[in-house]
Amino acid sequence: MSLDPFWDWLANTDLAFAIGATWWFPLLESIHVIAIALVVGSILMVDLRLLGVAARSYAMRRISRELTPWAWAGFAVATITGAGMFMTRPAAYAANPAFQTKLVLLALAGINVAALHNLAMRDIDRWDTDAATPRTAKFAGAVSLVIWAGVILAGRWTGHLN
Ligand code: HEM
Question: What's the rounded Cα separation, in Å, for the pair 71 and 46?
């Protein structure tokens, strides 16, 4: 089933015109970049702790507890601003290989958090306050860093391919 009729409808909404033809688009993109900094910045610190290379004097649980809400807040703002930009040219973005790659990587980032983080955190009582971290934690942190670097690259490339 083609989504083209839906993309056409979306692109012709008053909101899509209000964003696409005015300063709203660069404003949304600027807020999108700030939200990305919040998401990726807080996840980066959790991953570097999982890797055992940063914030080593802090307990893993405490780092995760303090920073995860900020990551979710940034993700919510990135999704709202991203959707606002997306609806200005939905068919073009949906067909854009960089944008498709970004959405796939975002899904993988979610799976990584659910699977690997839970795997690494299962025996957290054993290493929570240790500076050194177990291999599963290092693996979860490394996979997350690679995925989020890919999301940023694909996000930046989106505008170049459109
Ligand atoms: C936390 C998740 C996200 C990250 C890390 C991210 C990352 C990025 C990056 C790095 C850019 C380029 C910004 C620039 O240099 O100006 C970008 C642009 C964009 N993002 Fe996202 N993004 C995220 C979520 C989303 C979502 C959920 C959507 C859609 C629903 C979306 C839609 C867009 C669009 C439409 C652009 C503009 C591309 C253009 O310049 O034409 N983003 N994103």
Answer: 10
139 Cβ partners below 8 Å, 6+ apart? 116, 120
Pocket of ligand 1 (CB under 6 A): 29, 32-33, 36, 39-40, 75, 78-79, 82-83, 85-86, 93, 106, 151-152, 155-156, 158-159, 162
Q: What is 58-91 written as a DSSP string?
A: S-HHHHHHHHHHHHHHHHHHHHHHHHHHHTTSHH
Q: Where do we find the tokens 């839970």?
A: 118
Residue 19's closest CA among 75, 105, 93, 71? 93
Helix (H/G/I), strand (E/B), else coil: 155: helix
CA of 78 to the centre of ligand 1 (A): 7
Structure tokens at 49: 């702790």
Average confidence (pLDDT) per 10 residues, the chain, 162 residues: 93 96 95 97 94 93 94 97 97 97 96 80 86 89 96 95 79
At what angle are helices 60-86 and 24-50 packed, to 10 degrees?
160
